[in-house]
Fold each of these.
Amino acid sequence: MTRMAGLVIADRFKLKRMIGFGGTGQVWESTDLRTMKPVALKILRDDVADDLVTQARFRREADTIASLDHPGIARFVDYGHVADLALLGGRTITYLATEFIRGESLSALIHRSERLPPGRALNVLEDTARALGHAHAAGVVHRDVKPSNILVTRDGYAKLTDFGIVRILGEATLTHVGTVMGTALYMSPEQARGDAATAASDVYALAVVGYEMITGTALFAGHDPLSVAISHMEDEPTPLPDFAGEPLKALIARALQKDPRRRPSNGTEFAEEIAAARRPVGPPAHPDTGSDPATPRILRRLKGLRRK
């Protein structure tokens, strides 16, 4: 699959370069030949393409992204299957095309910068929380909020990606009871126990991301995923350093409560608390947005979408 550069998928998407890979597939920067715009094309790997659960999750990811319309979530473009590709031995390709985001992953940004200034961290937190709030209002729980699933654009906005293991409230699950879904470093205590993830679980994970942005270190570290998961269930986190400021320290501490009932209940509630916490931190990362950049930043993005 790594030698597919130049191949045209579904008579529409021309593969340019591979930009990511994971447990189920590869992601390619591609050109949409209908619009001549770049897209991110996710393609299922050969060895999992015939697995029914993997197929169902991939279709659910496509359906989920297609149902969400928010500037903080990568926009859906297309989903489908292409059979009998002669160049690939006649096999079938299953693909998902989404908006191509020019920027870098938050994980790369943290690695390069070591830690982010509190004001910039709050920008990323609020953007992501508002995206989560939109998903939560639609009954979607992300279940895998982490720096590598948050992309930061060149102008500083954050976009949430990878809805591959979402939970749709009220629908049958695609995992067995007690199965742990998510990434240990950012896993809520209830997920670590094998309980169902909720919107408050996503809030916890985003708070863990915020802690890492501000300190440059993981909330809990361990020799293996199990020890990290146990820490999320049992250990109290070290408070943020004083340079973060009391409002931000209190914000993160509340969202990291072991009991999900004591956290903000969903992304929108968390975003409003972030907007309130940002005011004493100092000038915003985007000075043209005024003294309270939270709402103007979102409105500017929505106006930009309408112009398109």
Note: Residues 168-181, 281-296, 302-308 have pLDDT under 50 and may be disordered.
Amino acid sequence: MRLILSLILLIPHIGFSQSDTIELKFDTKYYDAVDKWVAFPKKDTDTTHNFGFIYIDQQAGFTFDYNSNFEKTNDGLKKLPRKFKDPLKLRLTKNTINIAVLTEEQIAELELPKEPEWLVNYKKDSITPRYLKNIGFHYNANGASNLALEPLLKAYDIDPHFDGLEFELSFAYNALGQFERAISILEKAIDNNSKNFYFYRELGFSYKNLNKIEEAEKIYRKGIKMSDNNFEKSEMAVNMAQSYFELRNKEKFDEWAKLTRKYAEKDSRYSQFIEHFEQNWNKK
């Protein structure tokens, strides 16, 4: 959801320069601005910026709570009357544009609290494994696995086998290229629950990226046998096909290419990958 809202600030002279409080740097990803007051860039046709507070709803994910608008004047930043009477919360996605995090001076200028009073309601369960796992999930799902680690590791210290936690933690480690750590988590997860094929999917990915191809193949075979999800099966199969393409092992490649086509939908991305590998087999 692209949010291009309007706002701008006004600053009294209280020991800092006007340029310090007026300047807005729209260089921050929304997932790096959790629990912060932020402003969105304005459209070329607008004169104001939207501003508000970003937080994570453990169910809905990254959320922008609209506060009001501000504009720049010769005297500084000026807060404008709120456009809406009712609360306005907007869900943020990967398409959200970069935002500006408001400085302490700008927050003071707008006469804002350090954080909204309502925020406590969203953090009342913040030390529970469920809350921490859900926060980690939203970071992972939005491509910020580096930020997912902290809540996930906190949850792991409390209850390592909490439902869904080991998958999220291993997913984060794999996304960050920390494959040995992912393996350590997944081996313990499988010892506790050997029926979860998602553990095998992640473990196969870890071994594949450590170039432990035989181990990856064994694990992927187990995962495919357990899974009743053709998409997941095709993902595991195409990963092995890619490995054998890179090794130029035609017999093994053909085996896994056939499995990929068996489970992948026609003209799907994974089917197209197989076609690409075959067309480029003799190219270095």
Note: Residues 136 and 150 are 8 Å apart (CA to CA).
Amino acid sequence: MRKTLLFVSAAAVVATPAVLSAQTAYRNLSPRYVQEAQQQNAAVVQEFGGAETGQRAAYVEQIGRRVGSYSGVNPSQLRYTTLNSAVENAFAVPGGYIYITRQLMGIMNDEAELAFVLGHETGHVAANHAQARQQASQRNSIGGILGTILGSVIGGGIGNIIGQLAQTQSQLSTLSFSRQQEYDADRLGISYLSRAGYDPNASATMLSALSRATALEARIQGKDNRSTPEWASTHPLSENRVVQAAQLARQTGRAGTGLRNRDAFLNQIDGVFVDDDPAQGVIEGRTFVHPDLRLAFTVPVGYLMQNSTDAVTVQGSAGQAQFKGGRYTGNLQTYIQQRLQQLTGGRTQIQIIQNSRTTVNGLPVEYVVGRAQTSSGVVDVSVFAYAFDQNTAYDFTMLTQGGQGVGPFSSMVNSVRRISAQEAAAIRPKVIDIYTVRPGDTVQSLASRMAYPNFQAERFLSLNGLAANARLVPGQRVKLVVLGQRR
């Protein structure tokens, strides 16, 4: 298939009038990619916590279609979905499906910033960026995450496993774009933004907001054990990118004059969940707690967690692990063998070197340590399975360097426990509360209401795009993160 890169040059952006009518001549996307996107959509949505419905989802779709109408792609082939995910992410697949997480929306401050992100992702579709990169990065299926990884690195090495396991979500349905493709998508997004009547400066303010959030996350990361926001890691940020966006915005001749629609946007995100949805379990420091499943475990110091709908990925310098559950018929050995089969896909021979049983905090446990040969050396593969009830077991599947076995994760596998009804009931979600500043309110007084144990002032300033010496004005609307009620 011929691959055509469509991107807008700086000169083309300059030429845009104040507001242009949407295009009337559109091109259709490849039927193959449209079909694949339709087939993958349910699995992508499931992996990222489910799709939001209702007023906020309709609002995002409306803004997406507004900017997407200037992309040259048949509007009927563009789909905009809001995901219930705690990962700051936005991505698109070649068949015209564009996704954005509620977590990424939480760091935005107006509708124009939302429009830029949706326009940027639509730009990737319009410019066929994924097709251009596809030969260098093969798509993985949603199922069999660990199996795909191990199967792909036999002939690679432990270094390839490290890093892949923690990025399963982005590898599932998106491709890594080059820095130049990201710049091109920024140009396209700014073009769509300006032509749709928005302030093109929103591109630079959005990228600045993301840069601030990423920098703050880097400071906090060692303490809250969360992995780097996905959009930050897959969409390279730099001062040059922010500067370029600001330059392109000025060249439109409309910088600072278009729509921002801050109040309308704030109204839409009032009450939106921030960080983990308790229905999927929550990360509290180094501990993962699931109130509905009534379980908890703690990762070693220095290890990071990423929570998805049905699994928790643990990443560290000495190995990778994934925690998830499955159907249990009373035989943990059968359960473990099924995990190993899923892991290898039947393509790789694993030599079993240890097979034992024990109890952990009153839970029956069986575990297996196996060994697989790669071109770069030996990889140890371990499965630690816990019988929780007659129908369900949970397990850690771990990958470490040869000879280490479960070693780096010993404290973690021994920390799994049931939690009490009282502990479960105490877990509440964090939500965005849109607050109107009153006389006497200060950054410090409002930051003290943030539902975090640390970095309260820094989080408040970053969330609202405020400088460290900012003065609040009565009537000003700001975002707070407070404890809410479970759904």
Note: The chain has 19 helices and 17 strands.
